[in-house]
Amino acid sequence: MKKLLFIFGTRPEFIKVYPVIQEAKRQGNPIVLVNTGQHKEMLNELLDEFSVEVDYDLKIMEKYSGLSEIVAGSISGLDPIIKKEQPDVILVHGDTAATLAGSLVAYFNQIKLAHIEAGLRTYNKFSPFPEEMNRQIVGLMADYHFTPTEMTKENLLKEGKPKNQIFVVGNSAIDMFQYTLKDDYTNEALSWQADKKMILVTAHRRENLSDLEEIFDGIAEIADEFRETHKIIYPIHMNPIIREKAQKLLEHSNIKIIDPLDTINFHNVMRHAELILTDSGGIQEEAAFLGIPVLVLRDTTERPEGVLAGTLKLWGLQKKILLMRLGLY
């Protein structure tokens, strides 16, 4: 058995890492869990929900806020932990600051690095920002690349990664549904929406903050046009910039803005949607599994498989294009 050290810091990371942790435990591997604390409240709620106790919590957001500070602080906090624990393999997921910092510390300490959800690419270093460059840099250091699809495997092969280090393993986000979906689920937002079909909205990405007015204007027009048949539920991000603009631009009887939902609640609300508008990467994958079409509120996607399959359509952040996608122009 190998000693495995998992590093994560955000809620989306943990959602996709949790099934892997459970399987590693089932196989009897010694496990060390490190939370950098980038998503403090949302991630801690999730850890409590699944009765997961981490071995180390860096509480990074209590000291730092900027990207450079978060990465540098994470590296400083992780390095003594790695030196103490001496794991056989460090596992990171995706493309966050914790992923980048964990990968660098693994490299500095010459410890094997496994990258879960490897090979996703847009090849535009500013879209998504900073995630695209995070995952490309991590890919240079990884010893094991666990990719979700054949297309992501091909990306890595084109970049010159050794074939014997790439493993197509599917998407662990889908594995998470076995722990979250409930047949007897009820929710106040679903009760409010029950007399009409649901459009679910999420919008939070850093690179989209300057386009929020365009996004919200388009959503408000959708709410007005489809007022007889649809209602819109928007679990809003904690970012005060997003909240202020949403409260101003999304006052509509057919739009319900609610606080962020934890993973179990979000999955069970999402499964009832007829359409999803989102700039999230993970939701693109989850919605495809649930058979729900998605309009991606971004110019690019690192998940072109969904576009090719017809489950995803790119908006491009222009209101007119969004409304054209919905047949209003």
Automatic annotation (TrEMBL):
Protein EC: 5.1.3.14
Molecular function as annotated in GO: UDP-N-acetylglucosamine 2-epimerase activity
Top-level lineage group: Bacteria
Sorted UniProt keywords: Isomerase
Residues of the UDP-N-acetylglucosamine 2-epimerase domain: 30-320
Enzyme class: isomerase
Keyword Nucleus: no
Gene3D superfamilies found in the cross-reference section: Glycogen Phosphorylase B
Pfam families linked to this entry: Epimerase_2
Family: Belongs to the UDP-N-acetylglucosamine 2-epimerase family.
Name of this chain's protein: UDP-N-acetylglucosamine 2-epimerase (non-hydrolyzing)
Species of the source: Lactococcus lactis subsp. lactis
